[in-house]
Amino acid sequence: MIISKSSTHFNKKGYASSSISDIMEETGLKKGGIYRHFESKKELTIEAFEYSVQIMTEHYRQAIKDKKSMQNRLFAVLSVFQDLEKGFPLPGGCPLMNGAIEFDDTSSELASLVRSSMIDLLKFVEGLIVKGQETNEFSVDVNAKQASIIIISTLEGSLALSRLYHDSIYLDNALDHLQNYIRSFSI
Amino acid sequence: MIISKSSTHFNKKGYASSSISDIMEETGLKKGGIYRHFESKKELTIEAFEYSVQIMTEHYRQAIKDKKSMQNRLFAVLSVFQDLEKGFPLPGGCPLMNGAIEFDDTSSELASLVRSSMIDLLKFVEGLIVKGQETNEFSVDVNAKQASIIIISTLEGSLALSRLYHDSIYLDNALDHLQNYIRSFSI
């Protein structure tokens, strides 16, 4: 419960700018109650970030589960960003992008976690494209690594715009564009 | 000098998590020296953000200045993101995206400024495309508003990835893709 509520708070407000008082307010616990479970704010932020990543990983897994074709699995990845825009499964946007912007100029343990988690997401998308090439669904002319960067960059950028303006038009336009881009992979 | 040094600090470390002590350290001034110029931290953050936006606006203006065709002007917008990746004209990445991620869940005066500044950037890119259509350089089939969203989303997302990993490959891949996308506008 502490981790879940803390992760929501950190994802919305940022890690560095959130104080233990914020977490006390969010959880209704006293300082001692929090420090009984976590040695330091650092430990709490790391566990909260890991929790966010687990929630997202499970959400991606569920999204692609029933999709047979790799095109539909990639479309399912796009749909996860539509969910994030609506505040689901986590409020506050994509924890990886939030972490990327907050920690790009730092080298903490949390920054390393953000870096490895974003790589996992890029590799996940790249893997779907490579699988599509192996099963002759996608052309081998597609550079899977480059395509994964284009897809994730465009999704993260447009989600940030939609969240900034509380208007889905930015993400919707990007999804429309990316659907055509992904369709162009097919043989 | 206070504004310039503060804007660098805020752009790298974030606005909410930076304290007046950080600004004292950055500028070498005592607290009284800072508050002689600014009524509050809020006033300082707003002036520092506005300063960042001015620097960026001037940099975009310089980048497109000698470019005649709208295609080359759009390519010049891409080159500004290459500069940002190298920490120029501001260290810490794009102040608009940094602000978007930090303030998307808030409704402060600074959040409003981030929103209006990001709209200005989108409109600037949209305007270049519309101009290209008016002068018969670009096809009227291109949806200028959608295209501006795609270009800015992809640039902002890939810049964030390149800054996260201190590796230009993410931005380079995105620029390669966007150059082809922009070339597809031409009649």
CATH architecture of chain A: Orthogonal Bundle
| Series of secondary-structure elements of chain A, N-terminal to C-terminal | HHHHHHHHH
Number of helices of chain A: 9
- Global geometry of chain A: elongated
Summing up helix and strand content along with how strands pair, one would put the structural category of chain A as mainly alpha
Q: Tell me the greatest interface.
A: A-B, 41 and 41 residues
Spans of at least 5 consecutive residues with low confidence of chain A: none
- Mean pLDDT across the residues of chain A is 96
Task: Report strand % of chain A.
Answer: under 5%
* Share of helical residues of chain A: over 70%
User: What CATH first level of chain A would be assigned?
Assistant: Mainly Alpha
The tally of structural domains of chain A comes to: 1
> What is the alpha-carbon Rg of chain A in Å?
18 Å
Largest sheet of chain A: none
Oligomer: homodimer
Could you tell me how far the N terminus lies from the C terminus of chain A, measured between alpha carbons in angstroms? 48 Å
Annotation, overall tally of beta strands of chain A: 0
CATH superfamily of chain A: Tetracycline Repressor, domain 2
Description:
The structure is a homodimer of 187-residue chains. By secondary structure, chain A is mainly α. Chain A is built from nine helices and no strands. In chain A, helix 1 (2-13) packs across helix 4 and helix 5 (70-85) packs parallel to helix 8 (144-165).
